[in-house]
Amino acid sequence: MTSFQAILEGDRLALSRLLTQVENDAPESRAALIELFPHTGRAHLIGVTGAPGTGKSSLVNQLALHYRKAKDKRVAVIAVDPTSPFSGGAVLGDRVRMRDLAGDPGVFIRSMATRGSLGGLAQSTANVARVFDAAGFDIVVIETVGAGQSEVDIARLAHTTLVVEAPGLGDDIQAIKAGILEIADILVVNKADRPGVEATEKALKSMLELAHPARRVFRHHGIEMETPLYQVESRHPLWIPPIQRTISIDGGGVPELVEAIERHASYLAQSGDRALRERARLEAELEGLIREELVERFRREISAARYEKVLEQILQRELSPGEAVKLLLNGRFK
Amino acid sequence: MYDRKKLDELKSSLKKWEETSLQKALTQMPERREKFVTVSSEPIRRLYTPLDAADLDYAADLGLPGEYPFTRGVHPTLHRGKLWTMRMFAGFGTAEETNRRFKYLLEQGQTGLSVAFDLPTLMGYDTDAPEALGEFGKCGVAISSLKDMEILLDGIQLDKVSSSMTINSPAAVIWAMYIAAAENKGVRPDQLRGTIQNDILKEFIAQKEFIFPPEPSMRLVVDTMEFGAQKVPQWNTISISGYHIREAGSTAAQELAFTLADGMEYVRWGIARGMDVDQFAPRLSFFFNAHNDFFEEIAKYRAARRIWAREMRETFKAKDPRSWLLRFHTQTAGASLTAQQPENNVVRVALQALAAVLGGTQSLHTNSLDEALALPSEQAVTIALRTQQIIAEESGAANTVDPLGGSFFVETQTNRIEKQAYDYFRRVEELGGVLPSIEKGFFQSEIAEAAYRYQREIDLGERKIVGVNAYTEDKPLTIPILQMDPDGYERQVNRLNEVRKTRDNGRVGQTLDRLRIACEGTENAMPHIMECVHAYATLGEIVGVMKGAFGEYQESTAI
Amino acid sequence: MTEKKIKVLVAKPGLDGHDRGAKVVARALRDAGMEVIYTGLRQTPEMIAEAALQEDVDVVGLSILSGAHMALTPRLMDLLKKNGQSNVQVFIGGIIPDEDVQRLKEMGVRGVYGPGASTEDIIRDVKMSVAG
Question: Which value does ipTM take for this structure?
């Protein structure tokens, strides 16, 4: 029995071991990924990102609980934390906040370190999510820290990306600067029982107005009135990120958040956006793999000495990198 | 304090000394290390002179003992008038066993009780709760109901002996049991003297024995402060503790800064409840660690008194001088004890205890030599107590007030720690205060960082610990280890079942219901807890009701 | 292909909250290049075994200072075995009397460390245990 068949039959140890192989990009995992690919494409992938201190892990905990209890969905969580650039090691601590999920066979939590390359992380996360998808998890939550490029890359994997903010952190603006707002499908103001929640929400709103001019706030006799989102949607093939308040300590606002995620999922399906995103994602993956393969082939064909020599010429400014490419590839790929 | 001209003269003679005498000495024999640091990794210079203490204003910075700012001590005669309270922390197994140990300690000349509770009790579980598996009586006594408390205090004169109870999250409940047990013996609450630790902030910061989230936990603390001020006026309703912060691996300055920051937070909450600061501040007491670095520790206690007096008078506008006093208990550093060559721990404890005495402590616990291996045996506890008695009676350390005051070195260190504390206060302020700093894991990661640095220094041999990475021996252990009553668990569980069977269960249900309503509202919960306790509701039942009303807390991840 | 990282689960079973040792060890292992999954306080043997399974770890490190080690460890060892993870190496740190150290090792615990243990030793032993 291949590991994949065992996984289909609910063998959690086999699943866990395959995840390790996938994460390590081990040769055995490639065969399994080929085998499981036809079974993928069913899960809804939710990206959760935001600055430290916004309570992401607790929110993921509540989100998963709600999907289990109210929706009877199987939930996988991929919790990504950074690798120390000095030692290559990492401390992955997200499970601490997810203890409510212990003992539930419908939940599987996997911690991942970012390890070396960012591109590699995005690819291995995609593959890990794919394994969960094939293994029959309905919801795959990918949680990442901070506001860096790696988060943006990983968020692209997700069907619905939640950007989490919290009042009183003072770094709202920073997160937005880093371009993270642009990847948000839903904005979450977590810890909404705290003072300052209005201010955070207001800041997000005005940022949204800049980013999405379609969203208008009208004033009618001095009262702020918004065009309700679903109305905009029905007339307009444009999704405007709603702002959802949650309290991750007790799960307040989480049912509404899940509704918003579901609205987004049906928007994706109806507007054809899901297919477009999927296409773009798979195309990017295909392109990446082609690039990788081509470079590998090229390196096999070209002698190391010749490569070094050309590199040396570039260093000496005798050749430009562009000219060098032509020289090296000349006659090889037509 | 010094004559400017004389200082200038000193400056030039110091310069000359460096060029001549010192230079010669260094050429003949270089110093043992390039850098000398305290146990908190603070650099220490070769020599301190009046130049280092030149800015000291005697009246403003030191003052006289018993007077503002109390740097030299909280009482004019200090240990000449009354020795510190020798208070040995004890507790293990069943209430019967611990009661016997208490009576033994009182016979040996101990002057106050100090109760250690087991982990199920500390976490609000009854002995037979599934979460309590394997933990019964291991690091303290199990108290699951008023019945256990009555046995624990049997034959002890509660109007004479003061008791300190190390209990935090369920402090209100355990204190209620103590008061109820006294009432049942005919002792009135206003006759009781003692302390409950009740310092929940340091649980979130360091010891991690929390149950409820920070806000309701703080509300319970203020409930006890208020109840104490009205009904149990001689009781210290909170012992603001740096001990556990230090044990978790902090530096001396962090211990001081975080503890005082916590203290000020309790004051803010008390004032917010509508109490006058002078109504509760005199009943706030402190609890510090005594670690290995002799002078740094003494400086820490002195700085603590000065900062607290200033903040209470200037920031919180307390008018009663008793509100300005930082009175503290000290325990020698458990984390400094070694499992290797455990007899050496007697010496460590003696030096740490001496620092506490010279630093002006009001009470003291000395650790037993076997505590890195197991619970202390009776013999080990006796040696630890005798250590205090030797310091008190033989060393002369208790003959004068603040004997190290005016030491150029100690005054410099006192100033240094004070400055570091204010730096931390500012950072906590910038993070939005104590509770937000806890949520963000600020204290936790500062401590974890310091703990890691310290361990690495030992592992790399930069810091020497006798018996651990220096002067090691390969010798089997020979010290006797305390053996607990093997039938204790069964006896305790039987008693608990008996209580549940024989009490008036209707009354238990009613009192628990009223407690639930009080907890969901804003009314002081203490009188309702007293009712539950008197009805023999168990600890687990009472805390269960509170969990329902308050929720439970999950730690923040700060490695 | 990425180099195979050593994955370690660091957990605190039982009720005690003294996490200094667990955190110091977690950091030391991280600085030795390992991936450490920290599960936090008050973990039951069931929770630890489940996390070990989901994370496919090579090593489980337990920190127990309360004296409950003899009640908690056998349960964890059984659960690991039941889950097909007998290959996972278990290490314990805490205040553990000598006679218990022997019994824990008989249960299959790979290493036991008391106060004064060096992180260098722990790192070395963990690496060796995974190497075979």
Answer: 0.93
